[in-house]
Amino acid sequence: MTIEEIKQKNVEMCIPSGWNIYEWCEKHPDTTIAHSMRRIEKDFDFSDSIQLGFSGGKDSTVTANLACLELNLRKLRVQHGIDRDGNNRIDPLDAKWANRRITACMTDAEVVFSSTNDYSKRFLSKYGPEKKYLLGDKEYLAHEFLTLADGSKETAENIFNRVMQGEEIEIRD
Predict the structure, then answer these.
(1) Calpha distance 46→24 (Å, rounded)
(2) 125 vs 119: CA distance, rounded Å
(3) Could you give the CA distance from residue 141 to residue 44 in angstroms, rounded to a whole number?
(4) Do the Cβ atoms of 64 and 6 come closer than 8 Å?
(5) DSSP label at 31?
(6) What is the DSSP letter of 153?
(7) Residue pair 95/82 in contact by the 8 Å Cβ criterion
(8) What span, in angstroms and rounded, lies between the C-alpha atoms of 104 and 3?
(9) pLDDT at 162 (0 to 100)
């Protein structure tokens, strides 16, 4: 598979219309979108995690979409063993993202329109529903806080990670 085919596959996976943003940016290199894509690429290159603030507005939606597009492109390049220049090798800057996700944070303010919250939930579910963890015989969302036997509270994801490291943890019902 060529780098162009990987980019086309990414576009088909992430952009409902199938519009090839990569070709457009090559034809229009001095646009805000082209500059934003290059900045986001560098953010991924020089970072080990990406955190987004998401309001449900147009600016944060575009930023989140571009970040998801970049993350998915890196995963596809690793999957097909192609680097960003089209060479048959896995770029270490891509490989570090193979099993990572983007962290998004949204504050649910009381003054936000319900349609904005509904849109945000649809957007976030599209780009990867939250991880779920089986603890005991019950499934919990990663961000859910559970009360431990000592009265402290911790997220399901943290509890799961502690158990996987061999710690015995008792959860209150």
Answers:
(1) 25
(2) 10
(3) 26
(4) no
(5) S
(6) E
(7) no
(8) 28
(9) 79
HEC string of 82-114?
A: CCCCCCCCCCHHHHCCCCCCCEEECCCCCCCCH
Give the DSSP H/E element, type plus range, for residue 5: helix 3-14
* CA–CA separation, 129 and 122 (whole Å): 10
How many Cβ atoms from other residues are within 10 Å of residue 146's Cβ?
A: 19
- For the entire predicted model, the pTM comes to 0.71
What's the DSSP call for residue 131? Answer: P
Cα–Cα dist 147/149, whole Å: 7
Give the SS3 label for residue 38. helix
Under a CB-based contact definition with an 8 Å cutoff, are residues 89 and 55 in contact? no
Q: What is the pLDDT of residue 29?
A: 97
Closest among 126, 122, 136, 140 to 168, alpha carbons compared? 136
What pairing do the DSSP bridges indicate for beta strands 153-155 and 138-141? unpaired
Residues 96-114, mean pLDDT to the nearest whole number = 78
28 alpha-carbon distance from chain centroid: 26
How far apart, in Å, are the Cα atoms of 115 and each of 41, 56, 119, 121, 130? 31, 9, 6, 10, 21
